[in-house]
What we know:
The chain is an alpha/beta fold. The protein folds into 2 domains: 56-110, DNA polymerase, domain 1 (Orthogonal Bundle), CATH 1.10.150.530; 114-410, Aldolase class I (TIM Barrel), CATH 3.20.20.70. 33% of the residues lie in helices and 17% in strands. The protein has a 9-stranded mixed β-sheet, covered by helices on one side. A two-stranded parallel sheet has the order 1-2. The longest helix is centred in the middle third of the chain and has 15 residues, at 185-199. It starts with 23 loop residues before the first helix and ends with a helix.
Amino acid sequence: MNALPPRPDRAFPAAQRGLPATDGLTEAERGRILAKAALFPPPPQEDAEGRRDLVGLSREELAAEMAAIGEKPFRAKQLWHWIYHQGARDFAAMTTIAKPLQAKLAERFTVGRPGVTTEQTSTDGTRKWLFGFRDAQQVETVYIPEEEEGEIARGAVCISTQVGCTLSCTFCHTGTQKLVRNLGAAEIVGQFMAARDSYGEWPTPKGEEGRALSNIVVMGMGEPLYNYENVAKALTIIMDHEGIGLSRRRITLSTSGVVPMMDKCGAELGVNLAVSLHAVTDELRNEIVPLNRKYPIAEVLDACRRYPGASNARRITFEYIMLRGINDSEAEARELVRLIRGIPAKVNLIPFNPWPGSPYQTSKPEAVRRFSEIVNAAGYSAPIRRPRGRDILAACGQLKTASERARRSEA
Ligand code: SF4
């Protein structure tokens, strides 16, 4: 159990407008996190001819680009529609724009996508991409379909937010790859757009129904709240109802518990929250999720309790990876239930997926089943996540490593 003394920023009053009122300590901590993120910037979104990528610009930035070339503000609205609603990648396809202006735009701008290094589809329908960017850095993106009567009705795209990660969670393969840089908004939105290209899901289907790529989980490589500004910009673009128009209810951001940024994320974006908990004592969590030394379990759970919009209809997801003999006992299941009491929550139990050199083993199925029963009996849904895409390198980070190995052996 967490026996750390309370910190002064524990008890935020309820949100008034926007961000909850915070003391100077939390503000300073947020400032520090944002400043650190700025040390790992993405490269400029320009091609070799100096043409700027319009993907990833906010509406205001797009309007400013149009103003800078002497075009009226409504051109930005037209472009927004073509880029994010129609999925157009070529100005020549934008038929409501006169040909001379199409040519002028093509001289100065591009509508980019990440390059597809590899695309693999599993026998269970999971599709994985290794996407490459201008500076040759790569990340993974995965589409996980849900099948309904043999038809793919809907599914989630798991997107990455950093190349590598600073957090070194001991069960995570990505955590073995040090942080190279943050992804830019264009690279984050671009993963979703390229996934939709792959399924031909353009123009954007009307409403929420009828989308195969119906949800986003920000759960891929990296800690999204350590790249907050780019993530927020990308998600704002994705949620814009005149473009991709995915509702905040269909987006889940997963964090290891960057407490000061959880408040900001809830107040500004209002997306669903998932927290990688994985342990019920600070002693163990300090070891497997080292960020816990900075933001211990009690603080993370307090941030969940005050997360705006959390309700029984919009529960907070706790991710719990099942490691044999480490965190999977019945006593730990009971302690988990005690810890999360009062939080509208569900618990995702994830059987550990071993990777070469990993120090853990997957929990025995019986232990996972008992754990799930105990959490269930306390009134929390506790589904056991089915391993997906095992045949195409399931664990996050494996695809990137495999490609690096292949490149090295070719060299
Ligand atoms: S689990 Fe997430 S936060 Fe932890 S090392 Fe892996 S990518 Fe980073």
